[in-house]
Amino acid sequence: MGHNEIITLVIIIIIILFVILFSSFVFHLSLLVGNQETPRN
Fold this sequence. Notes:
It is a single chain. Helix content is 80%, strand content 0%. The chain is built from 1 helix and no strands. The protein is rod-shaped. The termini are far apart. The chain crosses the membrane at residues 6-33. Keywords: Membrane, Transmembrane, Transmembrane helix.
């Protein structure tokens, strides 16, 4: 029961939150790009 378990738990939570925020950001960005007339790659 050391600090390593708490640190790994916090790192896992931060990674999960970052993945959720990044996926939602990419989803909204794809919606914005899809609404535009000019397609870009």
